[in-house]
Amino acid sequence: MRPRTTAFVAASVDGFIARSDDALDWLTGGVDSGEDYGYAEHMAGTDILVMGRRTFEKVLGFGQWPYPGRRVIVLSASMPRACIPEDLRDGVFVHAGPVPDLLDGLGSAGCKGVYVDGGQVIQSFLAAGLLDEITITRIPVLIGAGIPLFGQLGNDVRLEHARTRVFDNGFVQTTYVLQTP
Length: 181
Known about the structure:
By secondary structure, the protein is α/β, with parallel strands linked by helices. The protein contains four helices and ten strands. It has helices at 39-44, 53-60, 99-108, 119-127, and strands at residues 4-12, 16-18, 48-52, 71-75, 92-95, 113-117, 133-139, 147-148, 159-166, 172-178.
């Protein structure tokens, strides 16, 4: 049985997940330090994170590893295991093969929930029909240019609205279930 796949991502109102240089400085404006915006709840349903190499490298730059004790799989055809810091090698793995094979293997191993992260990875899961749910938190800022959350998909992706939350600081979080054709 294939595990449930979800994305949980923040985007500017104009649809960008980072500046062109991968900077996230715009993301922290208006953040209430006492609110996690549903992140803990989302992570509670997550067994494994799957992210791209650029996202992995960005997360490494945060200083403290934000996923202690959680398995992370980096999708990359070219990243050698040596690029993973020694202290993370027990929990971070590289997968270079097809994503459906990865999901089949995870499901066979008992994985129930996969958190998909990173713009290109989210786009590839969408294009392949492998994403079950996406939660987008719109940050009330226009940054004008950057890395878009969505790119060309090749076909329409139908979404069913599941819920919307509005936070006091203006963040608007919407969860969609992806419809299978």
